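Internal ticket #5521
Category: modeling
Description: The requester needs a full-assembly model to guide mutagenesis choices. All entity lines are attached below as received. Residue total reported by intake: 426.
Assigned to: D.W.
Attached entities:
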Amino acid sequence: MTLRMSAPRPISFSAFGRRVAPTAIARLMSAALENPRLLSLAVGFTDNATLPVEPFRAAVEALTRRPGAPEYLQYGTNPGRPLLRERIAARISRAEGWPEGRVAADQILVGNGSQQILHLAAEVLCDPGDIILLDRPSYFVFLELLRGLGIEARTLPVDAAGRLDFAALEVAIGGWRTSGELARIRGVYFVSYFSNPSGRTLGADEKRGLARVLAAHGLVVPVIEDAAYREMGFAGPSAVPSVLALEEWVAFPRLYAGTLTKPFATGLKIGYGCCTDETWRAKMLHAKAGQDFGSANFNQSVLEEVLGNGAFDAHLGRIRAGYATKMQVLHEALLAGGLAGAGWRWQRPEGGLYLWLTAPAELDLGGDGAFFRACVETGVLYVPGELCYGDAPERNCARLSFGVLAEADLREAARRFCAVAQQQRG
Ligand SMILES: Cc1ncc(COP(=O)(O)O)c(C=O)c1O
């Protein structure tokens, strides 16, 4: 009997499968890794030259010499290693200026990077068509995550200096009430410290004001504070209180998301959430159990070790000055390239990995435009700012990262970028 082969049938994908599209972050990361000639000011990688190989080796050595070593190579628990959660809780307490123990280990859940925590949080809060309010500009990977889940983003209005504009927010809320969208708002998200992409730190007054306006309109919805860069202030961790500490936010269910990845070793990909609401945390853990029933136990063990033996903080102390210098190098190279004279604007951040540039309004820096193409041809990559807006994208902005490139490459990348800026201006 001959087997008749039928033509392969196209797979019928779910609504989610149909919605998910290639993400900009994946494209940018592979462009940077695949083309060595291209200098990437786009990716938010940390600096290879400063990654903590020796402290990592010492931690692995210490762990593997212990009589209980096999435990580190075994599965862990879904919420994360208990000692690691204790150490994270103590760290958050210290950041808020609280006595140790104020944050409980039971409020913490450990994730495969803080990215997973953000995903879990959004996934258990929202159905397709629901709305999340967020900062302007915001973390573009979070925006893509929302898009994949069918969740709509609405931006919180800001003034010309990038500060939250409460008068405009009142007007926007009035509009959402009239349009019936208010009832679909399920949460608020913002990157509060040395932000990706803007480099800004949200002031305590802005955080307080936001809580007041939301509460006044009955929008006491879950809030996600993304504190990924809090520890990466050039002068130390930011002392601006988080939503965990501000009394205006007490009535809101709060999730404070942080990462151990960025400040130490991105490849270990361990992040955490500190959640004030037991049910929300439990839901996230149920969803996590279906995804991986626990983040890599060995990676967690290494971080538990370096948090305990001081190597994590020693490393942070070393890299802070390095990133401050690299930011300055990029800033000066952009000045030397004539960008300020050509009407571009930017603020020097006090931490993090990013410079946010605003070009004269008539310049289009979008990913499908002539400026972006010219940059790629000239051998430099940036993140088009338009990707960082939940709505009404600005097309004359760009995010430049000073994280990954060495100083000489940063100068060269800036030179190429400025050459394109001069050329496109003409
Ligand atoms: C604002 C922000 N949040 C979260 C993350 C996720 O970091 P990770 O998953 O590596 O902990 C990043 C990474 O770039 C980020 O910039």
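Resolution: model delivered.
Comment from assignee: Residues 44, 113-115, 139, 191, 196, 226, 228, 259, 261, 266, 269, 271 surround pyridoxal-5'-phosphate (CB under 6 Å).
Ticket closed.
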